[in-house]
Design goal:
Helix content: 55-70%
Distance between the termini: 70 Å
Structural class: alpha/beta
Strand content: 5-15%
Radius of gyration: 33 Å
Number of strands: 9
Largest sheet: 5 strands, mixed
């Protein structure tokens, strides 16, 4: 019992806190002025790209634009300095829109921030328990399916803003599409023209030059055009006309010209406009939303870190990155921020611009902060249709249409099924159900494939591993492949029938790399059946370390009477020959001589 308890304790994940692994590695290798200047330049470029994106992503998530800026400032800097990736840039991302928009619509800004803080705690726990590498086991069809589905949700959610449509739209995708069709005659042509022009600049300007970020040019032109149209009496919906802010006794429209100020997440309004009341009921209600934010944040941040490693030739610490993502998401809501994770596009821009260390991502946060303090009045001129056009381009780049089509063309039918189910559930339901069902379905299909790979056969006659053969009365049964649920029953079913009439059963487990509880139960069932026949001896031969440990925990380490365990196959064969030999005849007892009875 004590040995089982100790083994169970060893199997638990070890808790470890290793913050700032990337920054410490950079400083240890040496960091000079040239490195700093290069990181500052890269950080400014990324900040220019992130500035309109942060606002657009916040609007897409259903909250005022300044909350996206605060996320890039607070969470972006904290994650960069505490994380495990040298070049990753974190902040609000498009993938979160599909999750955050329903939360903000149902629970308000306060509910979204509280759920984000709870997700931060979950991410910290995941990083501390070293669960970072488990994300790599999510199958590619699952990630592609829900990523493409999220892109469709994002694009659909921006159509009304691009067309200048007013009124509230449903969060359900099919109903929203129908509402867009119904309200199509209400298109505001000035907004549509502004959004179309912005989208054209975003698409075609990079073909002219890539030295200047296309979002900077597109948004600057859009703001100037909005101001000019306003002079001629042609109004377009801008941030200033759409959003109003209140900070203390100050108020205004557009973006507040203040840095992120500390505040309790639950002090922000709920869906009805009242301050959120912190209670156990509210925490329980937001638990599933927090889990969804944490899971998507973990998946996207680690996928982004893998991409950055491939581009920069570095290696990230997944557990350290999860820990930093957790701290960033925990701290940001206390300064008005929302959920953050690694942003692939901004990370790629950082690397292409020469960023080599976490300092560049921290500089990007400082640039966004400076822009909020200096340019807030000008940012209010940004048209809503232009922000929608930017998100439409982000959704298109996120969709990975080529990868989606490639899976449909070359993947096995089971993978195609997983892809389509994940895509459909993401669009029609939500990302949590999509990933949960997708991973479960992929796991079941994987188990079926592994069960097909596990082979068990009765060796009758000569075998290449036993050239001389085995004596009569020895049953040689070979199992190849992992012995786990799905494969165990298939591997053992024939043994129940054929093993009963043989005094010695040699079970070759040398090709069994792993065994789980179901495999153990299958072996125990066979062993119980054979032991019911007096005189039957069972040999487990060639047992590898992991199955040997399982057998040892179960007390099946051999009683040397009916069960024998040998680590090598050859030892098992030698023992089988010895046990199959007939027992030497015992000497007959001497006849009893009767003594005469004296009279």
């Amino acid at each position: 019992m004590k040995r089982r308890y100790q083994a169970a304790l060893k199997s638990l994940p070890k808790v470890s806190f290793r913050p700032a692994t990337a920054l410490r590695e950079v400083l240890k290798e040496g960091y000079g002025r040239r490195d700093l200047w290069r990181d500052v330049q890269a950080g400014v470029v990324v900040g220019i790209v992130a500035l309109p994106l942060a606002m657009a992503l916040a609007i897409g998530a259903g909250v005022p634009p300044q909350h996206g800026l605060y996320t890039a400032i607070v969470a972006g800097a904290a994650i960069a300095l505490l994380g495990g990736s040298r070049t990753q840039v974190s902040g609000p991302t498009a993938a979160f829109i599909a999750i955050l928009a329903p939360i903000s619509a149902k629970y308000g800004v306060g509910g979204l921030m509280l759920a984000t803080a709870m997700a931060g705690l979950i991410l910290i726990a995941m990083g501390a328990m070293r669960l970072g590498r488990l994300i790599q086991f999510i199958p590619h069809p699952v990630t592609t399916g829900f990523t493409t589905g999220i892109a469709v949700v994002i694009a659909t959610g921006q159509v009304d803003k691009l067309l200048g449509l007013t009124g509230k739209f449903s969060d359900e995708w099919t109903e929203r599409v129908w509402q867009l069709i119904e309200r199509a005659p209400q298109i505001h042509w000035a907004d549509l023209a502004m959004g179309g022009a912005t989208l054209a600049v975003l698409i075609f300007f990079p073909r002219v030059t890539k030295r200047v970020p296309a979002p900077l040019v597109a948004m600057a032109l859009a703001a100037v055009a909005a101001a000019v149209l306003e002079r001629f009496g042609i109004g377009v919906t801008t941030l200033a006309t759409k959003f109003e802010w209140h900070v203390g006794t100050a108020s205004g429209r557009g973006i507040p010209p203040f840095p992120p100020l500390p505040a309790w997440p639950w002090s922000f309004p709920d869906a009805d406009g009242h301050p959120l009341v912190l209670s156990a009921h509210v925490l329980g209600t937001l638990a599933s939303s927090a889990f969804a934010i944490a899971m998507l944040g973990a998946i996207e941040s680690l996928l982004s870190a893998v991409v950055s490693d491939g581009m920069a030739g570095t290696k990230h610490d997944p557990d350290g990155e999860l820990l930093a993502q957790g701290v960033g998401n925990l701290v940001a809501p206390f300064f008005g921020g929302i959920a953050a994770t690694g942003a692939i596009a901004r990370t790629a821009t950082n690397i292409r611009s020469g960023g080599k260390s976490p300092i560049s991502a921290a500089v990007h946060s400082l640039f966004v902060l400076a822009a909020v303090l200096v340019l807030a009045p000008l940012l209010g001129w940004l048209p809503m249709a232009s922000m929608a056009a930017l998100l439409l381009l982000v959704a298109w780049n996120m969709a990975e249409v080529k990868h989606f089509r490639h899976i449909l063309q070359v993947a096995p039918n089971s993978d195609v099924l997983v892809l389509l189910i994940c895509f459909g559930l993401t669009v029609m339901a939500d990302m949590v159900k999509s990933v949960s069902v997708g991973v479960m379905l992929a796991a079941l299909l994987f188990m079926r494939r592994m069960a097909e790979l596990t082979q068990a056969r009765l060796i009758d006659g000569e075998h290449h591993r036993v050239p001389a053969g085995l004596p009569k009365g020895v049953l040689f049964y070979e199992i190849a492949g992992p012995l786990f649920f799905g494969a165990a029953q298939k591997a053992m079913e024939a043994l129940h029938v054929v093993a009963k009439d043989n005094p010695v059963v040699l079970l070759d487990l040398s090709a069994v790399p792993a065994m789980d509880m179901t495999g153990l139960v299958a072996l125990e069932t066979v062993l119980s059946t054979l032991r019911a026949h007096k005189g039957t001896k069972v040999i487990f031969a060639g047992v590898q370390p992991q199955p040997l440990e399982v057998l040892d925990r179960a007390g099946l380490n051999g009683d040397e009477q009916t069960l024998f365990v040998r680590k090598t196959f050859d030892e098992g064969v030698v023992l089988a020959r010895q046990l199959a030999q007939p027992a030497p005849p015992t000497a007959a007892p001497a006849p009893k001589v009767e003594q005469p009875v004296a009279t």
